[in-house]
Design brief:
The protein contains 13 helices and twelve strands. By secondary structure, the chain is an alpha+beta fold. About 55% of the residues lie in helices and about 15% in strands. The protein is rod-shaped and about 160 Å long. GO terms for molecular function: kinase activity. Its EC number is 2.7.13.3.
């Protein structure tokens, strides 16, 4: 059987509480006992010495042990908490103040007696209890001399058997039981209060654990979750509330990622189907013309063969162009593109790209201008990737700009960055379609057709290339008036 966090915490708390309570009770009793023994031993340390010096039987040496025993009996009546023993120099008990049979030992260890006589520190010092073999008690002791010759020791047990019996009875009295019961009830209420507090503090943690179990059972799909999930306060000072809020945010993020993955997967399927169609068309045409050449080689004229070969080459170029774009888009989406950023003059790059399209632009009488014609701005970017973007954008502008139009490559300093605008006077894009032109395979309804095959991947590739360059490709357009693509570049620190 598995126990939750709170039952395990409560069990540990009860266990630790009991151990601490027992340890405190034991250590308190032990400390109280040793303190009491030390105080009593220090208080009565000179008792035996005074008895030896003041009593004639002991002052001049002991000869009458029976009389000494009667003396001990009398002293014990006067001081019932003491037990008196007379020992020889080796610790053998010669006489004592007790009823016959009460004294079990015949001798006591002499080492503690010598320690007590020769030191005034390390109290309490305990010696053998003649009435209980194996037990030790505090004592007072003094040597007994006869003409400077050690005759024995007076050995006085402090807190004898009757004293212990009275103390035990007091401890078992009604008042002591009431005090013990009061302490037990107080400790029990304290433990109960701690358990309630722990219950209060661990309840949010249990709720969070239940929510996690529900999410796991729903296979992390938010729409499959039950409606009873806990509501968490992200601004709370309680760490569990903030943790629950973070868990909810994470769940929402995962759910959004699932939706995006499903959307991307759907787009990939559509893209794959469209690209398959685009590839099939030039490939089928190429195959058809090559088969015609192969089957009718002898019957075709030189001009027909040349015509078929030209068409086949054109289809092969279109096919290669499509495949190159597909691979380029795949590499960009897979993050397999490496940037080689450097500082270079932007004006030179713009003039070079514009010169590359000069002949094609003249055929349609389109003017390509760099504005301003000369500037000294240096930018920090990947020159190859930027040239690829400019080439795609200018090629699109030429294709969609009618004869006698113009294309401007304008550079403006904007917010410590260089903004590049590629403006044309072409057919423009409608407001309904402008939001989709960066999607792969999307072509506007008014796209100009030419002799080359277009897969609608150029703007998608440009968008991803500018994202790699930490910029954003934006577009503004008016139908029938022209289009402007713009992006910003980081200025180089030095050149």
């Amino acid at each position: 059987m598995k126990f939750g966090f709170y039952p395990r915490l409560a069990a540990c708390l009860v266990g630790v509480f009991m151990v601490v309570m027992i340890a405190c009770f034991y250590s308190t009793n032990l400390l109280q006992k040793r303190t009491q023994q030390e105080a009593e031993q220090k208080l009565h340390i000179g008792l035996a010495e005074h008895l030896v010096s003041d009593n004639p039987l002991l002052k001049e040496g002991v000869y009458d042990y029976e009389a000494l025993g009667n003396l001990f009996h009398t002293l014990m009546i006067l001081g019932p908490s003491f037990e008196f023993y007379y020992l020889d120099p080796e610790g053998t008990i010669l006489t004592y103040s007790a009823e016959p049979g009460k004294v079990k030992a015949t001798s006591v260890d002499i080492a503690p007696i010598k320690q007590l006589i020769n030191t005034d520190r390390d109290f309490p010092i305990e010696g053998d209890d003649p009435r209980n073999i194996g037990l030790q008690k505090i004592f007072s002791a003094a040597p007994v001399y006869n003409n400077e010759k050690l005759q024995g020791y007076l050995y006085v047990i402090i807190g004898g058997e009757r004293y212990d019996s009275i103390i035990a009875n007091l401890q078992n009295s009604q008042s002591m039981r009431e005090v013990a019961l009061f302490m037990f009830v107080g400790l029990f209420l304290l433990l109960l209060a701690l358990l309630v507090l722990f219950k209060y503090f661990t309840t949010p943690l249990r709720r969070l654990s239940d929510d996690m179990d529900s999410v796991r059972e729903a296979d992390f799909h938010r729409e499959k979750l039950p409606p009873h999930l806990a509501k968490w306060n992200r601004n709370s000072a309680n760490e569990i509330d903030r943790l629950g809020s973070a868990f909810t945010d994470m769940l929402t993020h995962i759910d959004n990622q699932f939706d995006q993955l499903n959307k991307i997967d759907s787009q990939r399927r559509v893209l794959l189907a469209d690209l398959s169609h685009d590839l099939r068309t030039p490939l089928a045409s190429l195959q058809g013309y090559i088969e015609t050449l192969a089957l009718n080689e002898d019957s075709l004229s030189k001009e027909d063969r040349r015509h078929f070969v030209d068409i086949s080459l054109k289809n092969a170029k279109n096919l290669k162009h499509l495949i190159d774009q597909i691979f380029e888009l795949a590499y960009l989406e897979g993050g397999q593109v490496t940037l080689h950023q450097e500082s270079f003059p932007l004006g030179e790059l713009l003039h070079d790209v514009a010169a590359k399209f000069e002949l094609e632009a003249k055929q349609k009488n389109i003017a390509i201008k760099v504005i301003p014609d000369h500037f000294e701005y240096y930018v920090f970017a990947d020159i190859g990737k930027l040239e690829r973007v400019l080439t795609n954008l200018i090629a699109n502008a030429i294709r969609h700009t009618p004869a006698d139009g113009s294309i401007d490559l304008a550079v403006v300093l904007h917010n410590d960055k260089l903004r590049v605008d590629i403006r044309d006077t072409g057919i423009g894009i409608s407001d309904k379609e402008i939001a989709y032109i960066f999607d792969a395979r999307y072509q506007a309804s008014n796209t100009e057709k030419d002799t080359c095959s277009h897969a609608g991947l150029g703007l998608a590739i440009c968008k991803k290339l500018m994202t790699l360059l930490n910029s954003d490709l934006r577009v503004e357009s008016q139908l029938g008036k022209g289009t402007c693509f713009s992006f910003e570049l980081t200025l180089a620190n030095s050149h």
